[in-house]
Design brief:
Blueprint (H helix, E strand, L loop, with lengths): L3 E8 L6 H9 L6 E7 L6 H11 L4 E5 L5 H10 L5 E7 L9 H10 L8 E2 L3 E4 L5 E4 L8 H5 L11 E3 H13 L5 E5 L14 H11 L3 E5 L8 H5 L3 E2 L2 H7 L2 E4 L4 H4 L2 H5 L4 E3 L13 H9 L4 E3 L3 H16 L4 H4 L7 E4 L1
Parallel strand pairs: 1-2, 1-4, 2-3, 9-10, 9-12, 10-11, 12-13, 13-14
Antiparallel strand pairs: 4-8, 5-8, 6-7, 6-15
Amino acid sequence: MLGTVAILLALHRSKGHLGDLLGSLSGQRYGDWALHAALDGEDDGTVAMVRAFADKQPQQTFLQAGPCRGFAANFLDLLSNVGPQEQFAAFCDHDDDWLPDKLARAVGALAQLPPSEPALYASRSIVCDRWLYPIALTRHPDPWQGFGGALTRSIASGNTMVMNRAGIELLQQALAHLSRPARIDCLGLAYKPDTDDLRESPALAVAKILADRGHEVLAVEPHIDVLPLGPASSGARLVSCITALRDADAVGILVAHRAFAARRTEIALHPAVIDAVGLFSGTFGDCPAIDEAGRRVENHDVALAEPAQDFGVEAVAVADLDRGKTGDSLRNPEYRPNAVLTE
């Protein structure tokens, strides 16, 4: 017997989408599953649909209130509640329509791996219009970017992901650790390298967002003496690079100052670094510390991301979605025109 799959379903104004999804769950050829659903916000009739589904199904259905902090927080809350009796966890969007072999294929693939090793299954999806007419296939999952790359961009669509018991426990341990505020280094606040110009700086916005969310932000900006009012009023502190690297839980390189390039070896030795500006990709080839630091990076979890402006803009957009400002069309599933069929 392979084990029970916990299907994790985040709900928000889902009444108009759930019929196709719940029907596809009923039609799964792998029948050992339990549905864990959490509703964010007001009930538009979603709860009655889930309860009617539960009354007809032999599998267990659990319905709870969501944290109302966006879909990501809802999924993480569901994941934290997966019990030890469930051997797999599958993420599910309310506008999905699963093919009959979805769970069978995922569980079959994961069962071939050592159960003690955390493992993640993902697949392509068929993007459809509102009448479920196929439009296109999504890209293949990209597992080759490694752990570091996965810290800065998703390797696959979340609604296709299924993980084994070891993966569930690993993430639950991480979620328990994240229950306390993190101490995060923001290396660089300026709009561009080697200046003190902070106007419209994405890096400055990232620092303020992290501070607003309750994290302790240690800002390192070698070209200023006083922290701007925005992040300072949220509790961020301006510190030296030495202090930041010594005290932080994680380091984010947000601006490619040459002062940071000269400290690449020290930065690379920190156990959790996100390089959002390519400091470790050879941009500063004339810096003597580059080659040595680059070799060290291979043995550390240093994430290479897109250019700094891209990192900053994406981070601000995600924060706005979380707070419901500019991202309602993405945050609110009611506005999504397409359904998705997972393989």
